[in-house]
Amino acid sequence: MSYDSGARPIKATVGRAARFVDPVYEYSWDIRQRIETKFDIPSGFGASELGSLEGSLQVSVPDGCADRTVRWEIAVDGSPFRSGQVRWVHAYDVEIDVPVHSRPRTVTIKADWDGGAESCPSFALTWRDPEIFMRADPNFMHPDFYP
């Protein structure tokens, strides 16, 4: 995935690449009111119509701000895909591993909260290792697969 538009996150490499292993990236935002960020997925990515969106999302609010509600949503190709909200905790982690039933072109993340005032100026949102994994097509070796 690569950044396309909206609130630009800070991209960091948190795991080094090896010979046959991709690096692990995380995207972070310092959110005062709300954000919306769109990522593109390469058009030639995957040879299947079944896959999954994976990664982990972390929400962290400052001390004294746990009474504020944080809302987040992930959309695939413009359709809501996974969402949640959290309140009364300082840090919240959610693992994302949700099936995708087509070849997605975009992934959008949105987040907002009830803060943004002087006492609670912003919260942190981190999306670690967001990836789309397309599964192998079981018909790959089937003779009817080829014209």
Give a quick rundown of the structure:
Helices cover 0% and strands 55% of the residues.
Unreliable stretches:
none
Helix amount = under 10%
User: Order of strands in the sheet with the most strands?
Assistant: 1-4-9-6-7
First-last Cα distance = 32 Å
Number of strands: 10
H/E topology pattern: EEEEEEEEEE
Shape: globular
Oligomer: single chain
- Treating each run of at least 4 consecutive H or I residues as one helix, how many helices? 0
Average pLDDT, rounded to a whole number, is: 84
Report the biggest beta sheet as strand number plus sense, adding barrel if it closes: 5 strands, antiparallel
Radius of gyration: 18 Å
Structural class, please?
A: mainly beta
Report the β-strand fraction as a percent range. over 45%
Question: What can you tell me about this protein's structure?
Answer:
By secondary structure, the chain is mainly β. The protein has no helices and 10 strands. The chain has strands at residues 2-6, 10-15, 24-31, 34-40, 51-60, 70-76, 79-86, 91-100, 106-113, 123-134. The strands form 2 sheets. It has a 5-stranded antiparallel beta sheet, with no helix packed on it. A 5-stranded antiparallel beta sheet has the order 2-3-10-5-8, with no helix packed on it. The mean pLDDT is 84.
